[in-house]
From TrEMBL:
Pfam families: Acetyltransf_3 (PF13302). One of its GO terms (molecular function) is acyltransferase activity, transferring groups other than amino-acyl groups. It comes from the Bacteria. Residues 21-182 form the N-acetyltransferase domain. Keywords: Transferase. Gene3D superfamilies: 3.40.630.30. InterPro entries: Acyl_CoA_acyltransferase (IPR016181), GNAT_dom (IPR000182), N-acetyltransferase (IPR051531). This is GNAT family N-acetyltransferase. PANTHER family: GNAT FAMILY, PUTATIVE (AFU_ORTHOLOGUE AFUA_3G00765)-RELATED-RELATED, N-ACETYLTRANSFERASE DOMAIN-CONTAINING PROTEIN. It comes from Paenibacillus xylanilyticus.
Length: 191
């Protein structure tokens, strides 16, 4: 796929697709995309105690995602609109309890892609990938206690509330949920 990022034209490898989205992996060249996403305080107010990430924190986040992909074969993968090639955000996994094959699902979208169904579409693909390709036993997800949109998304995906857990990044207790393979199959997210 040819990807236009400002004036740069780049070929991007895609490893997962949905009807409207292509998933890639983060690279050093994606710093402007990472800054556009994690540099927006409307996005990061849900994931940072300060309500924003500094350039150094964005850089560290990008490095962490790339390292996680190399070591664990998962990350919050960057998403692109199939038709336009525009960067939409990221959706993916990170280890939650690796020895038990439990992964954490996460999705962060750029503000101009909110409310268009991208989070649901991307999350369904990542859930299928987790259970079918990674043989996950359980998926975990949590959200900022004031983020009702994320709560609705997780419930729509079939996640079941378990408890509130302290999130060190925000300093708040986050409602936390799990999804099992049988939960996924009963909701027909696998087809």
């Amino acid at each position: 796929m040819n990807q236009t990022n400002g004036s740069n034209i780049k070929t991007r490898d895609t490893f997962l697709e949905t009807e409207r989205l292509e998933f890639s992996t983060w690279s050093e060249e994606d710093r402007p995309l990472a800054s556009a996403l994690w540099g927006d305080p409307e996005v990061t107010k849900w994931i940072s105690r300060k309500g924003f990430l500094s350039e150094d924190e964005i850089e560290a986040r990008l490095a962490q995602e790339m390292e996680r992909q190399q070591e664990m074969k998962v990350q919050y993968w960057p998403l692109f609109d199939k038709e336009t090639g525009v960067f939409v955000g990221c959706c993916g996994l990170r280890p939650y309890a690796p020895d038990e094959k439990i992964y954490e699902l996460g999705v962060h979208l750029t503000r101009d892609h909110w409310g268009k169904g991208y989070a649901l579409e991307a999350s369904k693909a990542v859930i299928r990938y987790a259970f079918e390709e990674l043989d996950a036993h359980v998926l975990f997800a949590g959200h900022h206690p004031e983020n009702s949109v994320s709560r609705r998304l997780l419930l729509k995906l079939g996640f079941i509330y378990k408890n509130d857990e302290f999130n060190e990044l925000t300093g708040k207790m986050h409602p936390s949920y799990i999804l099992t393979r049988s939960d996924m199959e009963s909701l027909h997210l696998n087809g």
